[in-house]
Structures are given as C-alpha cells and as structure tokens.
Specification:
Layout (H helix, E strand, L loop, with lengths): L1 E4 L6 E4 L5 E3 L6 E3 L3 E3 L2 E8 L3 E4 L4 E13 L2 E3 L2 E9 L4 E3 L2 E3 L1 E4 L4 E3 L2 E3 L8
Parallel strand pairs: 5-7, 6-8, 7-8, 8-9, 8-10, 9-11, 10-12, 10-13, 11-14, 12-15
Antiparallel strand pairs: 1-2, 3-4
C-alpha cells in the first residue's frame, strides 16, 4: 500500500501499489495513479495524475497539469502544479504559471509565467 494526495481536494488516500485509478475517500472523485509519457500533441482542459508526467522533446501538452513530478523536454501550454518537482530541460518550453516544491531549469529552457517554489500555501494563488 502507498499513500497519495488527491489531485482534486488534496486529501490523503491509501491505495494499492499496483492500482491504476481509485476514487478519493474524501471527495469521491476519480484519481488517476498512472505515469504518462507524452510523445505527440495532447490537448485537454485538465490533465491530472498522482503519478509523474514526462513531455518528450516532440511532445506538446495544451492543458492545466497537476502531477507528482513533471519533466518537460517538449512544450507545455497551461498552468502546472507538481507536488514535488518540475524539471525543464534545455529543449523544454512552458507557457503558464508553475507551482512546485522544487524547480530544476537547464540553461536554454524557456518559462513564460510566474513561479511559486516551496511548500504549498503561502503566496500561492
């Protein structure tokens, strides 16, 4: 068993190690637990997972993103919230506001937006 935070309400849920999705015991909304690797164009209103997202060099995501960790090698257009870490490589481009505990930006990466780095809460909008 492992513990995850709900991407909707922030409540802590205990889930089976091999589970792909569950319903939050607090808000009853569906939680996706999978990791994703984006290699093409992906446009949705919101892209939320308790797992990790990797946007490959040829990938583009047009959506508001919520994830455990995010690695951007391609393009992201939309606000991003990661529970732990956002990494933007030299080929990565993000157009939107970022919020995470840690941010890693390689030389040559592009960010067009505001950044909130640190524990969630203070100063975050």
């Amino acid at each position: 068993m492992k513990r995850v935070l709900c991407t909707h309400c922030g409540g802590e849920c205990e889930v089976a190690d091999r589970a792909m999705s569950v319903f939050c015991s607090h808000c009853r909304r569906r939680l996706i637990l999978e990791d994703f690797r984006i290699r093409s164009y992906h446009a949705v209103r919101e892209f939320a997972t308790c797992g990790d997202i990797v946007v490959e060099k040829q990938g583009t995501v047009a959506a508001r993103i919520t994830a455990g960790n995010l690695v951007v090698r391609g393009r992201v257009q939309g606000d991003v919230r990661a529970r732990d870490r956002i990494e933007i490589t030299r080929s990565g481009e993000v157009r939107g506001d970022l919020s995470a505990r840690r941010l890693v930006v390689e030389s040559g990466a592009t960010i067009r937006g505001h950044c909130h780095i640190g524990p969630p809460g203070e100063g975050e909008t």
